[in-house]
């Protein structure tokens, strides 16, 4: 009797979801193996580093998720603070000017948001809100981002009443984002690029585009990846320093720090929930020790994919709890946005392929509701109910996972948004 072996099992078809998922996993494993081999041979470090920085953009999906998250944070802050905007930053906040001057920010930032004219302040406030919306939607991102950074720094440095660690993180991240490709995915810029120019550009704009086309391909790639490295270094620096400072406190060493954090009167949006959680002594101690351990070891944990997944899940859960239980949601979301940068593009594609598979296996009436509005209207016009077996062309190709460096991430694409 013939014994079946693992090698004799049929290989999933290249176009099937199982085949694509296996391709993504094998490619990720190969990348991890290449990294480990490079670390064992220091002589190859310069060549590997140069190749990684200049061959193609990395973390393009993660930067898109970062853009959306930070944009939503800014919109949330502006909307929730709208009623008290004059007291927090405007004409009613002049009593904090002595503290503001101690920070010695350039006068340019203070002049953006007037403290003597409420109308001018409101106008600048609305301009900032509009920039945040455009940034979140990914429309003309290359143009919007520097103005958004300028106005956001101007607002956040105009007062000391509404500041926390999240403000510093967002300012630094927005500065690094000036050099990154934030609109490759999930943006109106991406939609506009796929459709092509709607009309012939003006002569001046055409000249600028022709000039930018002469820039070598590796330049925008290098700028993008440098922004990624700096952002990743920034968050690792925050985590490691936070762990070191925690270890200097006796409460963190004995595991009681989480208890005292949950009992601070100024950081209890849900007092009943905090009071319930502090009764779980074992959970409080574990939360304290895990926070120190995962923050301190974060730079090491991200080197290996399984440990990186565990670290990101734990760290993200920690920030969600900080936002929910302590009310520091701008800080929590800003840190989660930076954590996205450690998720590879291949992982994002694998997740979207899984979502496509779930959608395609859903009942017809559910699939019809999950389909975009323009597809539903086309199906209705054709006389279909949306529950048939024939899916639209773009739906049939949604789950296709292009190998790294292919598709819309191809090296020939110019990253600059013109």
Characterization of the model:
It is a single chain. With 418 residues, the protein is mostly helical. Among the domains are: 60-193 and 216-233, no CATH class; 242-342, no CATH class. The chain is built from 23 helices and no strands. Helix 1 packs antiparallel against helix 20 (345-361), helix 12 crosses helix 16 and helix 16 (281-296) packs across helix 18 (305-325). Mean pLDDT is 81; it is low at 1-18 and 377-418. Residues 1-20, 366-418 are annotated as: Disordered.
Shape: globular
Please report the total strand number as a whole number. 0
What is the chain-wise order of helices and strands?
Answer: HHHHHHHHHHHHHHHHHHHHHHH
Helix percent band: 55-70%
Quickly count the helices: 23
Radius of gyration: 25 Å
Helix-strand makeup class? mainly alpha
Characterize the main sheet.
none
Any low-confidence stretches, pLDDT <50, length ≥5?
1-18, 377-418
The separation of the N and C termini measures 66 Å
As a percent range, the share of strand residues is under 5%
Mean pLDDT level: 81
């Amino acid at each position: 009797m013939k014994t079946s072996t693992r090698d004799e099992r049929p290989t999933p078809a290249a176009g099937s979801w199982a085949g694509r998922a296996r391709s993504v996993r094998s490619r990720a494993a190969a990348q991890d193996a290449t990294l480990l081999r490079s670390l064992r041979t220091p002589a190859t470090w310069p060549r590997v580093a140069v190749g990684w920085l200049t061959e193609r953009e990395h973390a393009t999906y993660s930067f898109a998720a970062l853009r959306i998250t930070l944009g939503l944070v800014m919109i949330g802050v502006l909307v929730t603070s709208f009623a008290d905007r004059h007291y927090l930053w405007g004409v009613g906040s002049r009593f904090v000017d002595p503290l503001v001057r101690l920070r010695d920010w350039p006068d340019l930032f203070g002049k953006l948001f007037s403290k003597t004219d409420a109308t001018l302040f409101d106008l600048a406030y609305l301009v900032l809100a509009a920039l945040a919306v455009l940034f979140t939607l990914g429309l003309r991102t290359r143009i919007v981002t520097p103005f958004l950074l300028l106005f956001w720094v101007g607002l956040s440095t105009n007062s000391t009443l509404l500041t926390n660690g999240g403000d510093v993180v967002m300012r630094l991240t927005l500065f690094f984002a000036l050099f990154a490709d934030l609109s490759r995915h999930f943006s109106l810029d991406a939609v506009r690029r796929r459709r092509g120019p709607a009309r012939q550009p003006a002569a001046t704009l055409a000249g600028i585009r022709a000039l930018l086309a002469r820039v070598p391909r590796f330049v925008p790639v290098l700028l993008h990846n440098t922004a990624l490295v700096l952002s990743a270094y920034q968050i690792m620096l925050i985590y490691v320093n936070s762990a070191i400072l925690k270890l200097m406190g006796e409460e963190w060493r004995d595991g009681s720090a989480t208890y005292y954090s949950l009992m601070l009167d100024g950081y209890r949006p849900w007092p009943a929930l905090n009071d319930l959680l502090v009764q779980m002594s074992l959970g409080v101690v574990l939360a304290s020790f895990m926070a120190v351990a995962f923050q301190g070891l974060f730079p090491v944990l991200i080197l290996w994919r399984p440990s990186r997944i565990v670290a990101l899940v734990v760290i993200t859960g920690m920030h969600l709890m900080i936002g929910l239980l302590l009310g520091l949601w701008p800080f929590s979301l800003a840190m989660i946005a930076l954590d996205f940068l450690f998720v590879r593009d291949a992982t994002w594609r694998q997740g979207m392929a899984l979502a496509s598979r779930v959608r395609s296996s859903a009942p017809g009436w559910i699939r019809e509701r999950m389909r975009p509005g323009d597809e539903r209207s086309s199906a209705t016009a054709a006389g279909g109910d949306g529950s048939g077996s024939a899916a639209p062309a773009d739906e049939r190709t949604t789950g296709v996972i292009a190998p790294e460096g292919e598709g819309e991430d191809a090296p020939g694409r110019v990253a600059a948004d013109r």
